[in-house]
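User: My instructor asked us to take a sequence, write out its structure as tokens, and then describe one feature of it. I'm not sure where to start. Here is the sequence I was given:
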Amino acid sequence: MAAYIVVQIDVRDAATYEAYKAEAPASIAAYGGRYLVRGGPVEQLEGSWAPKRLVILEFPSAERARAWWASTEYGPAKAVRQASAHTEMILIDGFREPT
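Assistant: Let's start with the prediction itself. The structure tokens for your sequence are:
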């Protein structure tokens, strides 16, 4: 079942974060992941949640998503992201229609 990583990002060092944006996609693809949402305008419809930047990644499974996040391939990019932005990140399983 597909799994999704949802990330709320508050970029604090835009120049450094640009390096992350250049490095991260290759490691995501190596684990079967892909971007569904990568920044862009956020329109608040209800409540008080108003992330400055939102990213949604899709992986073939939660196991693949966890493997990517903990991988040596992603490690250098993760360090750049953590140094240049504050993030809130969750992993969630996708929806499967009952059979």
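For the description part of your assignment, you could build on this observation: The mean pLDDT is 96. Try explaining in your own words what that tells you about the chain.
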